[in-house]
Amino acid sequence: MVGVSAMAVQNALVQISLKGAPSTRHDDQHPRFMMDVGEVIFGREPVDIAKARSRAMHTWPAIVGFAVGCASGRHARRQSA
Questions:
Q1: What is the dihedral of CA 72, 29, 10, 2, to 10 degrees?
Q2: How far apart are CA 80 and CA 54, in angstroms?
Q3: Residue 80: which H helix or E strand, with range?
Q4: Could you please report the per-residue DSSP string of 5-73?
Q5: Could you give the CA distance from residue 70 to residue 15 in angstroms, rounded to a whole number?
Q6: Which of 52, 67, 72, 75 is an S-S bond match for 36, by CB 3.0 to 4.6 Å?
Q7: Rounded Cα gap, residues 49 and 25, in angstroms
């Protein structure tokens, strides 16, 4: 429970202190990114589309970084085995 509490505090602190920054939680990034992409493609309100585009532009580097980290970790693990 201490670990779960620490994760919750870390997530809350990021959201409070870094306004406009993408979430640091992997589970939050992908669904929000896909919803923003859908809003950009299918949205009708220009203001909502602009907000979604801005969030997506801030989130995609974190998603790519996560994927690269996973791939490099897998590669390193294969090399050591």
A1: -80
A2: 41
A3: helix 46-80
A4: HHHHHHHHHHHHHSTTPPPS-HHHHHHHHHHHHHHHHH---HHHHHHHHHHHHHHHHHHHHHHHHHHHH
A5: 24
A6: 52
A7: 24
pLDDT digits (tens, 9 = 90+) for 32-79: 888 899 999 999 999 999 999 998 998 888 888 888 988 888 777 777
pLDDT in tens, 30-40: 788 888 999 99
Residue that the structure tokens 């907000």 belong to: 51
Q: Give, in order, the Cα–Cα distances in Å from 69 to each of 11, 39, 63, 73, 77.
A: 20, 28, 10, 6, 12
The continuous run of DSSP H or E covering 4 comes out as: helix 2-17
Amino acid at 14: V
